[in-house]
Amino acid sequence: MFNVLADTRRLDPALMALLADACAELNARCLPLEEDGVEGARSASVMIGALRQGQRRISQHVAEAADRFPNVPLLLFSEEPLIRPAVTLQRGRVTVVSGSTAPRALAARIRPFLKKHASWSGGLGGPGACEELSFGCYTAGFAGGRLTGDDAVPHAHHASDGATLVLAPAGADPAAIDRILVSTESDSIKATAIETALGGRGAVIRLGEGGKSWALHWPRADWPLWLFSRLRLPNTTRLEPGRAGRTGGGLFRMEARSGDVLVGMTTWPDGDSAGDLSLLDALADGAATFLDRLERTPPTGDAAVSALLIEVR
Q1: 2-114 CATH
Q2: Helices (H), strands (E): how many in the chain?
Q3: pLDDT tens digits along 39-69
Q4: Fewest beta carbons less than 10 Å away: which of 62, 88, 128, 199?
Q5: The pTM is what?
Q6: Which uninterrupted H or E stretch holds 108?
C-alpha cells in the first residue's frame, strides 16, 4: 500500500473528504502531516497541500517537511484556475494542479506519483497501462480490448531531453527509433528508416529539446491524433501530419508548449476514429485524467484499443 501525506490541518474539509475517497480508490493510506512531526514521510509517495484563493506561499510546516524529505514530491491543489492542467516547478519536485475536484479527478492527479513504473520499452504485454512522471513531461501508454500479436501496443524510451513513444506490434525498439530521430540525417531519410524499423506498421511521437519541440511520424490516417492546449486556439485540434506541415518525407514538426497534451490512438473505444468528444473533454484536466476516463470506457465489441499520451509540464 502507498502512503500519501496530507496537510490535514489546512486543507479544506470538503477537499479532505474527497481526498480520502480518492486515496481509498487508489489503495493508498492518507496520513496526516502534523506540525510536530512527519510520521510516514520517509515511505510516502507524495505530499499533498493546497494553495487557497490569492495564496502564493505554502505553509511553513509543509515547506519544512519538504526540506527534510527532499525525495518526496509535493503536489499542491490550487483553488485558482491555472492556464494549464499542471505546472511543474523546481525540476519536477513541485507540481501545482487545478481543475475538477471530484474524487476520480483527484485520484487521476495523484496516481502518477503512486504507480510503480513497469518497463514498457518492449511494449505492453497485455491489457493495462504504464505511466512515467519525469521532469518536463508525463507520459502514459494504454492497451485494452482483445489484443493479438499483430496489434499495435505502446512502447516508450525516456531520454534526458524528452521521450519517444511508439505505437507498433510488441517487440519494437523505441530506443532505436529515438536514435534515428536525433541523428543528423534529413527528415526524409529518418522517416524511411523509421518505416523500415517498424515494418510499416507503426507511429511515433517524440517530445524533444527539453520539452520544446514535437516530432511526429504518424502515417496512419485512421489512427486519431489529437492535441489539447489551453494556450492554443482552438484548444483541441485533430492533427493530420500526413496532410500538412511536413518538413520532409513523413515527419511532422512543430513547437511544443508547456501545457500541451498529445494523445494518439489506434481507434477510439466507440470504434469511431473521429473521436468521442465527451472523452476528449477529459483532456482539459490533463493526460492522467484522460487515461483514467479511457480505462473506464470499454471498447466496442472485440476491438483492440491502444493509446499514447504525453503532457508537457
Answers
A1: 3.40.50.2300
A2: 7, 18
A3: 556 778 899 988 877 777 888 878 888 888 8
A4: 199
A5: 0.82
A6: helix 103-114
